[in-house]
Design goal:
α4 (about 190-200) crosses α6 and α6 packs antiparallel against α8 (about 315-325). This protein has 8 helices and 7 strands, in the order αααβααββαββααββ. The protein has helices spanning about 5-70, 85-145, 145-180, 190-200, 205-210, 225-245, 295-300, 315-325; strands at about 185-190, 210-215, 220-225, 250-255, 260-270, 330-335, 340-350. The longest helix has about 70 residues, at about 5-70.
């Protein structure tokens, strides 16, 4: 029997034999050979049953170990055989749960691996395009004899450097959000002040684009969240509206609070969001089917007036904004305003109603 190779079985059998010998010896002393014979027979029967049940248990353990081994070595079999009630059945159920968890984890890791590869490819493309354009601008600046043209090209180059810096900084923030490496504070946020904080970094750019931004905030409107990350999210929404609003246009920010939530609505007077783009508006690096970046224009024609065309984004700001709002328990939705233009609704529900 295979049990002879099992040290645990040998120890148990030895203990049982010693006990049986002691019982037989005691029977011989107390009642002679007949009682000792009965004791020896009963002990032999018990020993046989012990050996049979131990062999069955050993076979079940070996079968369970074999099935675990198949799982560990990427075998196709993931469902364990049925066992009768008992400690082995409990172990089998726990192992089944473990295998299911490992399988789900493996599938998620494969999906994340593919998503990471796609993200790296997108990041590489997004950074390579402006770098190519900047490389083409350098000889234009060097060979330009016209001071006005040289100054204009230098401004374009500076603007593109700033955009690449913004892209790298935003990608780092997105990575922190994905990794859960940033902390969200839970405190009372003055919504009107937060809106002004979000607008402040864009004030100069709005003036250059001749775009007005109006903030209409209810007095005392507030929500529970993180003021810095909320301002970051709103700033990205405002930046997106600025990039798609023509000169002379207006961006409007409305802040309202009711019994259920604090609501921040941003609208612009741009062309709005195309129906085919709306489902993908918060996807990373999605810029719309008709979007054409300044970098691509400059790469095709380094002498073209890139500064005169509207600046298109990288398609990462809205994705970051939605992640930051969602991390605080809020929602960010996009649509088209009835009077035209894009509309973004940022909602922070109240913790208690």
């Amino acid at each position: 029997m295979r049990l002879t190779r099992n040290p645990s079985f040998l120890r148990q059998a030895g203990t049982m034999a010693a006990v049986l010998a002691a019982v037989v010896a005691a029977a011989c002393i107390v009642d002679g050979g007949r009682c000792a014979l009965w004791a020896a027979g009963a002990g032999l029967a018990m020993g046989t049953l012990f050996a049979v049940f131990s062999e069955m248990r050993f076979r079940q353990v070996m079968r369970l170990a074999s099935e675990v081994d198949e799982v560990l070595h990427e075998g196709r079999r993931i469902d364990f055989s049925d066992y009768r009630e008992g400690d082995l059945a409990i172990l089998k159920n726990q192992l089944s749960k473990m295998v299911a968890t490992l399988r789900d984890t493996g599938m998620r890791l494969e999906q994340e691996k593919g998503a990471l590869a796609d993200a790296l490819a997108d990041v590489s493309h997004q950074i390579r395009t402006p770098l190519t354009a900047m490389g083409l601008m350098v000889p234009v600046i060097e060979n330009s004899a016209n001071a006005t043209e040289r100054a204009r090209t230098l401004r374009d180059l500076e603007r593109m450097i700033d955009r690449v810096g913004w892209l790298v900084s935003t990608l780092l923030k997105v990575a922190k959000v994905d990794a859960g490496a940033f902390r969200v504070q839970k405190a009372r946020v003055d919504a009107a002040r937060m809106a002004h904080d979000a607008l402040s970094p864009l004030a100069a750019a709005l003036d250059l684009h001749d775009i007005a931004c109006v903030i209409d905030a209810s007095e005392g409107a507030s929500f529970t969240g993180d003021a810095a990350w909320s301002a970051e999210a709103l700033e990205n929404v405002l930046k997106n509206c600025m990039e798609h609003t023509p000169a002379g246009g207006t961006i409007r920010v409305e802040v309202r609070e009711d019994a259920l939530a604090c609501r921040i609505r941003v609208t612009d007077t741009g062309p709005g969001i195309a129906p085919e783009d709306l489902p993908h508006i918060f996807e990373r690096f999605y810029r719309g089917r008709q979007a054409e970046s300044v970098e691509q224009d400059a790469a095709r024609d380094a002498k073209g007036s890139a500064a005169s065309r509207p600046t298109q984004g990288f398609g990462i700001g809205l994705a970051l904004a939605q992640s930051l709002v969602s991390a605080q328990g809020g929602t960010l939705r996009a649509g088209c305003a009835p009077e035209g233009g894009a509309r973004f609704d940022m909602t922070f529900p109240k913790m208690t109603v």
